[in-house]
Amino acid sequence: MSSITAFAKRGLTSRLKQSIKDALGQAGPAQAKAVQDAVALQEEQLEIRHLGPLAKLTPFGPVAMTLLRTFDRKDVAVQQIARLVSSDAALTSELLGLANSPLFAVQVPITDLAHAIAVLGLERTQAMASTMAMRAMLRSAPKTPIMRRVWRHSIATATIAEALAPAYGITPVLAQTAAIMHDLGRVALLAAHPDQYADLAVRSHESVDAILAAERSQFGMDHCQAGRLVAEAWRLPPVLQQVAGEHLASPSASDLLSIVQTSCRLAHDHGLAAIVHEHHRKPADTLDAHVPAAIRERVNGLLQGIDRQIYERIESLDF
Questions:
Q1: What is the third-level CATH fold of 142-319?
Q2: CA 8 to CA 32: how far, in whole Å?
Q3: Which of 10, 40, 18 lies closest to 87, judged by CA?
Q4: What angle do CA 86, 90, 95 make, to 5 degrees?
Q5: For position 312, what pLDDT does the model report?
Q6: For the chain, does the N or the C end have fewer beta carbons within 10 angstroms?
Q7: pLDDT tens-place string over residues 126-164
Q8: Confidence of residue 317 (pLDDT cuts 50, 70, 90)
Q9: What is the DSSP letter of 56?
Q10: Segments making up each domain of the chain, as ranges
Q11: Burial letters for 48-78: b for 16+ Cβ neighbours within 10 Å, e otherwise?
């Protein structure tokens, strides 16, 4: 595929550029490079090789992109993140609303963004940014049934992953963030080939392998390969690149990737597949096949009432 620069210019203000630099500028050369790339993505300065038609997928906004690049870091100060988030009015409003919700039972209303982020924590702030970014991306696309199915599947996967995280020793909001991003490649293929992919999505498929084979035959890559390409091009942390590229592989550990792999399967078992196939399992069979025996009983307990949680989350986040 040819070298291509096809991202739409968003015209960052000097204030937003400075906010991004302030947020990560003291973290060393690698993070400084990430900051430069985040700005360049929005100004058509970063040449993305080998994306081809996948470059039709517009990158997340700079605030969400930069927050995602702090996904696996613990050294980012609240004040730095507050300066960054303050550049995004919608995210600021969402964070303040959540911090003042009954979930946190604050005694005095929170009006300061840094205070809200301190209450929520960096990980929950990242999770909200990633969820809003994915929802905005899908909202901007044609409102097709497959697009809504992909989003509902992502929400279901994220809800299940968040519920299972304690059994795996993973922070729930980190599991949620990784899971909401897992089908990035499917969204990229939909952006690149909207009519063709929609046609593929409504066909009858025998199994997940049959779906991947059909994608490779029609588009030259499957959605897992597309997801890794896009995640690498956007300079997302390696673990998010891995999740985008390997979420359909068989779980083999008790780590973040395994949670997403298992949660993706369980979302299908609960009737919320992105693309329906005939190889259908009961949730109990998926647990037996893919969850380590040492934590299987606890995982089963954590899944009690998950259907209600999934549909409540879908109702709050659907479009």
A1: Hypothetical protein af1432 (1.10.3210)
A2: 23
A3: 18
A4: 70
A5: 92
A6: C
A7: 888 888 888 888 877 767 788 889 999 999 999 999 999
A8: confident
A9: G
A10: 1-140, 142-319
A11: beebbbbbbbbbbbbbbbbbbbbbeeeebeb
